[in-house]
Specification:
By secondary structure, this protein is α/β, with parallel strands linked by helices. It is 38% helix and 14% strand. It has two domains: 180 residues, Rossmann fold (3-Layer(aba) Sandwich); 158 residues, Rossmann fold, CATH 3.40.50. The structure holds N-carbamoyl-L-aspartate.
Amino acid sequence: MIYRDNPLKDLPWAEFQRLGQSEKAAHFKRNGRPYHALLAQQFDRPMLERLCDLATKIRRIAKTRGGMLFLQDLLREKRAMLYFAQPSTRTFLSFYTAGQIVGLNLAEVRDTATSSEVKGESQEDSVRVFSSYVDMIIMRHPEGGFAERIAWLLSNTTRPVPVINAGSGKDQHPTQALLDIYTLERSFESHGGIDGKTVAFVGDLARGRTVRSLAWLLTKYRDVRMFFVAPPELQIGKDILAALDAAGVKYELTADFAKVMPEVDAIYMTRIQDEWDQPGESAQRDVSTFHLRAEHLARLKPHAAILHPLPRRAEIATEIDNDPRAMYWRQVRNGMWIRAALILSVFERDAEADRYYQDLTS
Ligand code: NCD
């Protein structure tokens, strides 16, 4: 299918770069759906609710063999490329299996050392070549903003394809934020939903891109309060705080994790992203007061949800894994379903899943 109404076409790069993130985000949508999925800022509340609802429908449809085969037929004629220029197993597999659920044919490049980049090809050229073979690019890259650059570049070729950001530098991880929202929504299903909840983000908030994307998405919910719990040098970026101020969100920055524990409905734990450290920097840092241990469980609210994007180190003691409040294993499953929902929406095949679901339940 040749895509009409390509939202990024004919917008000069210099002009695009000058836009704020919310203004950029307007160029990533098409027909009320995500086309490129690059920034958390592009998802408004109706879109978030739609994706969560679609993910739930897909997971129910997939419970039978007939339903699974129906889903696998939806994008049977489409191909996608997974281009992961940064370590990943869970996000890679999550997208891989999500693509399989809706029938996408998948190709992958994970090790740029085996690609023509070693012959001096620019990364832009590499991705442009990949895009010629496929109908979608799903990419992870160490450089913030690179996925945007690729989306812009491809939009201005004769064969544009949508680009999904599977993690970019220290700045954004929008699909992780989608699965986090989906997990919070399900966790609070019988507690009034996400509106009015208090969320603590704990750990490396300076370089944890999942936190940055999720804090942004949470501004779409009413009366959500946030605590940012971190050592001062790893506190959340001023750009996120400015976005929260603009959205009228109440928040507090603190290093006192113990004080925050009984006050919150959700705790979002993160690992120290020491791959960005200078040599020796991490050895000097003691982050043990930002760990959640078994003895803390009694201090948490009975319905509190404990999340972690994974991989985990010592941030959450393994004794907590079987506590009913531990949601991090469910996050993994939820990620697969909501990524399947996102892929279907991008290709505008979501209404077919709606119809199948309706027949199933009527
Ligand atoms: C996160 C990431 O890559 O940003 N992992 C993930 O995608 N689940 C978090 C991390 O690496 O700590």
